[in-house]
Amino acid sequence: MTQELHGMRVAILATDGVERVELDLPRGALQGAGAKTEIISLRPGEIQARQFDLNGAGTFPVDRLVTDASVGDYHALLLPGGTMNPDQLRMDRDAVRFVKDFMASGKPVASICHGPWTLVEADAVRGRRLTSWPSIRTDLRNAGAEVVTDQEVVVDGQLITSRGPADLPAFCAAIVEQFARAHHPMPG
């Protein structure tokens, strides 16, 4: 186990309907590299995970509410997918503000599958290169993004994106690498 992310705090913004594997695998890669992760959500308690959007896949405990979270508390942000998860997040003013503030901070933001929907709502994709699940690519283009369809991972400055679960090995490696480049430990 490496410790290249030791002392790093990563916010994972998610709610009910999150695709389990898109939260579990990146979180495991980040924790394996020494990062501390926190699930930030809309309501206290637990969020319901899904598998392939259709099947229940257990729950995740919520560490903090988005209304109580500050960009200054974290070094990086992870936006997992699942169709229902970002669709709910993009309708929540506080979640959109958190994402918008994170993008404005210049800190790294990683998003996979349907996760970029929240970036669209935060007006954070204009002029950026990224990829996503095929069904939201028109939304990304309409919001001013340059969409890449033939790469597992696209890195554009602070933004790291992938298409879906099949890209998770490459996505996990890329987020650890990119987050490590931007890492400056916080006390505590």
From TrEMBL:
Coiled-coil stretches noted in the UniProt entry, renumbered to this chain: none
Keywords from UniProt, A to Z, are: Glutamine amidotransferase
Is Magnesium included in the keywords of this UniProt record?
Answer: no
- Presence of keyword Protease: no
Gene3D superfamilies this protein is in? 3.40.50.880
> DJ-1/PfpI domain: from which residue to which, for each copy?
8-178
**Pfam annotation, one family:** DJ-1_PfpI
The entry assigns this protein to a family as follows: Belongs to the peptidase C56 family.
- Recorded protein name is Type 1 glutamine amidotransferase
